[in-house]
Specification:
Strand order of the largest sheet of chain B: 8-9-10-12-11
CATH architecture of one domain in chain B: Beta Barrel
Order of helices and strands of chain A: HEEEEHEEHEEEEEEHEEH
CATH class of one domain in chain B: Mainly Beta
Number of strands of chain A: 14
Shape of chain B: flat
Radius of gyration of chain B: 22 Å
Largest sheet of chain B: 5 strands, mixed, barrel
Structural class of chain A: alpha+beta
Oligomer: heterodimer
Helix content of chain A: 25-40%
Structural class of chain B: alpha+beta
Radius of gyration of chain A: 20 Å
Helix content of chain B: 10-25%
CATH class of chain A: Alpha Beta
Order of helices and strands of chain B: EEEEEEEEEEHHEEEEEEEHHH
CATH topology of one domain in chain B: OB fold (Dihydrolipoamide Acetyltransferase, E2P)
Distance between the termini of chain B: 47 Å
Largest sheet of chain A: 6 strands, mixed
Number of strands of chain B: 17
Strand content of chain A: 25-35%
CATH superfamily of chain A: GHMP Kinase, N-terminal domain
Strand content of chain B: 25-35%
Largest interface: A-B, 45 and 43 residues
CATH architecture of chain A: 2-Layer Sandwich
């Protein structure tokens, strides 16, 4: 993780505040900051989303391409994550500075998305399937990157439209792919099983959700829990060099489960609401 | 549910601008022609090309006699001698600290321009130089005054008064420098129970009010003393109010902040993060300011 300069007095102030369940911006320990979401912001991508959580700004684009499935899994499609930390976010990301963080996030996403069934992405078993390239651009860092990235990825996948392609065998071994005549005939991916990350940041003896950059600077370790449908835990990993007590982890997972469930539900509602506005809704993008 | 999650859609985004009575000025974009004749004096934010004057930044034109300059809408802090600033120490070097004051270049705080504990006007010895990290280390926040401006535009700061010095517990809020209005004093003990330093560089420091005046201005931090919950609520509320005003581009000074604070009392603390309530506070504050001006 990248860090900022911070004085001891400010750290003490945050520590004590977390202990009193009153954070610097007036939130309680389990509160999220309001987020803003927009899907379909990149016209030339199969699906895209932009999420702003206070200062954190994430843009995700999904591109679907036809590929050959892995020999060990001939019936499923592929998904790949690529994270790019823009140097606009912080000068520390310049050059290869953001690479470690980017790799950390993309490998976390890849592991967490194991639970998403990709059977639908298969066109002809063993011959061709769809491969989803999920490109994540971090434009600004305001803390809580994992959660916001996962929400943005899920929204972008929800927004992804994949063209209807049928494959037929010609003389047994060769495959002929046929695109349907109507170019706009697409299908949508079912993302109800896609997980969200919930980061629990350890500050003092307490766990805090949705940490700001300042709060991240005060904490030694965070647990990132990926929560799937109905609050099921699909993955868990730790970031930072600090340690957690065994009991603390159990409590953290329980807490993350309920929060993640709520997060998934809220996101679903928001996405459906936007979908219902129809295709002609006004696009905001970056200009307003 | 003991947690709140709120995902807004961009379509429902709140327009943060507040209605004003003044006519909006014309905005110039970089490269736009400002002046067609050639008898002008070139000010900041402009450049001559093909005998006409063009804007080099996005902003509004200011004309004083023949001098034409463009004042940018968004810029880094341009220091002026005598300004009160809040800055963060980013480096300790020989006889000086480098300070981040949100200006283009790092500002400098010389060892000779701080009041060291003990004698006020004693010579700085080698021991003092070796002790520099005892007083201020990387990450510390200081309040200071701009003493002079170097030829390259970087600022030299001083803390030679008991009002300036190292800052202890509190919250730093960052806003655009242009939003902080110049006033007689930038240090305020607000009646709602918190102290505030409005740095001209856009760094605003909110801290609990310290009762004994003699403790400030030094290099001591009381880390054992816990700030009470009541004080924290006031500080958090002030922080959210300042950000609400800043989002709507309302000038920040003690009165506007106090008005916003009064208007915000009908909201819960965490509700102040919602864009709707932020705009509501900004509009009500603006109205109140205008009412007082008319009075």
């Amino acid at each position: 993780m990248y860090s900022i300069l911070f004085s001891d007095a400010e750290k003490t102030y945050i520590w004590d505040g977390v202990e009193l369940n009153l954070r610097n911006d007036g939130r309680k320990r389990n509160d999220y900051r309001p987020m803003e979401l927009e899907t379909d912001v990149v016209t030339h991508a199969s699906g895209s989303a932009r999420l702003r959580l206070a200062n954190t700004d994430i843009l995700v684009g999904v591109k679907a391409e036809i590929d050959v499935p892995y020999p060990e899994a001939p019936n499923v499609g592929k998904i790949e994550f690529f994270v790019d930390c823009s140097a606009n976010a912080t000068p520390a990301f310049e050059g290869r500075g953001g690479e470690d963080l980017a790799n950390e996030i993309s490998s976390a996403l890849l592991k967490a998305y194991d639970v998403l069934p990709l059977n639908n992405l298969c066109i002809v078993p063993g011959f061709s399937c769809w491969k989803l390239y999920v490109d994540i651009l971090i434009l600004e860092c305001g803390g809580n990157l994992y959660d916001s990235v996962s929400l943005a990825v899920k929204s972008a996948l929800y927004n992804t439209r994949i063209p209807n392609v049928k494959g037929t065998y010609i003389d047994g071994t060769n495959v002929d792919l046929q695109l349907s005549d109507d170019l706009f005939e697409c299908w949508k991916l079912d993302v109800s099983k896609a997980p969200c990350f919930v980061t629990l940041c350890k500050i003092g003896e307490y766990l805090v959700v949705d940490p700001t950059v300042e709060e991240e600077a005060c904490s030694t370790a965070s647990i990132v829990v990926s929560v799937g449908e109905n609050g099921s835990i699909t993955g868990i990993f730790k970031i930072g060099e600090g340690s957690f007590h065994q009991n603390a982890i159990c409590d953290a997972i329980k807490l993350a489960g309920t929060i993640g469930n709520e997060l998934n539900k809220t996101l679903k509602l928001a996405l459906e609401k936007e979908e219902n506005l129809g295709i002609r809704r006004e696009r905001y993008g970056f200009l307003k | 549910m003991d947690q709140s999650i709120c995902i807004n859609l961009a379509v429902e985004r709140v327009n943060t601008s507040v209605p004003t009575r003044e006519q909006p000025c014309k905005l110039f974009t970089p490269g736009e022609i400002i002046f067609l004749q050639s008898d002008f004096m070139r000010g900041h934010g402009t450049y001559p090309e093909d005998d006409v004057l063009k804007a080099s930044v996005a902003g509004v034109v200011e004309q004083i006699g023949k001098l034409i300059s463009v004042k940018p809408l968004k810029n880094r802090y341009n220091g002026e001698v005598g300004d009160v600033v809040v800055g963060r120490i980013i480096e300790v070097t020989q006889k000086r600290w480098k300070v981040d004051t949100n200006s283009r270049l790092d500002s400098i705080l010389l060892l000779s321009s701080v009041n060291l504990p003990g004698g006020e006007l004693r010579r700085r010895s080698v021991e003092d130089e070796q002790m520099m990290r005892k007083y201020l280390i990387e990450g510390d926040l200081v309040s200071a005054e701009v003493q002079s401006i170097f030829a390259d535009g970087s600022l030299s700061l001083h803390t030679r008064s008991f009002t300036y010095g190292k800052l202890s517990q509190g919250i730093l809020v960052k806003v655009y420098p242009a939003l902080v209005k110049r006033s007689k004093t930038h240090f305020h003990n607000l009646p709602c129970g918190a102290s505030i330093i409005l740095g001209k560089n856009g760094f605003i420091w909110i801290s609990p009010t310290v009762s004994d005046a003699n403790s400030s201005g030094g290099f001591t931090q009381n880390l054992d003393q816990k700030v009470l919950k009541g004080d924290r609520e006031v500080i958090a509320r002030l922080r959210n109010c300042i950000l609400a005003l800043a989002a709507s581009k309302i000038p920040l000074y003690s009165t506007s902040i106090l008005y916003a604070y009064e208007e915000s009392e009908k909201y819960q603390l965490a509700e102040l993060l919602n864009p709707e309530s932020m705009l509501d506070i900004a509009i009500l504050t603006q109205q109140k300011i205008q009412m007082m001006e008319d009075f």
